[in-house]
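Switch-associated protein 70, pasting as requested.
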Amino acid sequence: MVGLKEELLKSIWHAFTALDLDRSGKVLSHNLCTVLNVPHDPVALEEHFRDDDEGPVSNQGYMPYLNKFILEKVQGNFDKVEFNRMCWTLCAKKNLSKSPLLISDEDAFKVWVIFNFLSEDKYPLIIVPEEIEYFLKKITEAMGAGWQQEQFDHYKIALNASREGLSAWELIDLIGSGQFSKGMDKQTVSMAISEVFNELILDVLKQGYMLKKGHKRKNWMERWFVLKPTIISYYVSEDLKDKRGDIILDGNCCVEALPDKDGKKCLFLIKCLDKTFEISASDKKKKQEWIQAIQTTVNLLRAGSPPPHKEARQKRKELRQKLLAEQEELERQMKELQAANENKQKELETVRKQLEAAAARAAEEEKKRLQTQVELQDRFSLELEREKMVRQKMEEQVAQKSSELEQYLQRVQELEEMYKQLQEALEDEKQARQDEETVRKLQARLLEEETAKRAELEKWHLQQQQTIQMTEAEKQELENQRIMKEQALQVAMQQLKQLELERKEALEQYEEVKKKLEMAAINTKSWKDKVAHHEGLIRLIEPGSKNPHLITNWGPAAFTEAELEERQRSWKGKKATSE
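Structure tokens follow.
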């Protein structure tokens, strides 16, 4: 209950400092009793807030009333989110930055609640750089981005140079500025804040969709499971509106993997004292993650340990306290060393004074010694000066002779160089004459070659002119031939067109003759039929048969053999009739 009281006090502190308790203390107290499910005590409330020197602004203050009549009666059966939202409503309007943020008011509220969870247990509340780094890392991990350690180190150095940490509103400004979420859209940052809020504040260790087998109908239904330190709740969907049941966890629970059956894969079993739950994950990885998360939760319940994030927060606080104690111990040792050093400095000062006195005596003796030494140096200096003057005169004479010798040697060297230059000039002149003669001969030969080349070029030019003239004549002749051929082609085209017209006329005539022949064939057939009914007085001349020729009084091949037989039968019939 002590830890719960500290958590409540942080949120209440924000509301407490944002309100004018002389006028709004009753409203705050009434709201706290409502959201914390604490029975209202109107008598104590009016007694505490009466208008005299014993009111909340007196020496007694507001904290005794808060502890005695509200916090000591809290049982833990209240909605933490609703409690924090009430405190946020009272303090946000006054303290929240007016500048536009990259996060919504709901995300700012969640950051404020997380700040209360991670802040130090001293007032005014601040969050130290280590906890800021932990929070930013969690958000970055939830966004799936890479952590920029170097960027945070620069920010941490600048922060440590000015203060110990950030207030809740400065932390909201930091997250809302997008300094550590560049490249991420607003929705991604919001989802990351919600995920961290669920883990740190709502104690959600894991959540996700899985299939659960019913106890009565034995059918499989998809549910949204939420794992917390002592319970697994399952809902119809992730909006958490329609809760379907709970799985109460304790140290006697266990979780086991099951083989695939009934067409379901990735199965595992949660065994409790009164019930057993069969669950199917979406894949093997999710199955292993859920089994490990549930088993870790059960192990923590057996050991009586808090949830991992609370245990980690406690360890970080203990580590900071340990480092602070070590730093204080180091400061104490430094003070002791400084005191010892001051004592040593005093002893050294005494020794220094003694040394200064001894040095003064030694300086007096040294002064006398130096005076004697100066007198000796003056005497030696006079003798050295005389010797120096003599040596300087001798050096001047030697230098003069050396200068004369150098001038003589330089003159000799100049004459030798002039002689060499004259010889080189003569050699150059000889070579130049030889080169001039060679060039003259070369020029004469080149002139002769140029004359020959020019004559040859003139000859080629004449040949080229003749060739061009011949080519022009041939070209003119070919052009004339081309024109004649074009004319002949035009004449042939005209003749072809005339023939085409004649062919069309012939075809038309042929069609007319064909029609006439068809009409004649029709008429001939009708006459042939008439003649066939008579006895052959008139016989159309037709091509003969390929069969052997028959001769009658009508002429050779006048009848075919079949026709003759037909006529014979006809004659015999007529003859028999007449008899």
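Note for the archive: The chain has a mean pLDDT of 83.
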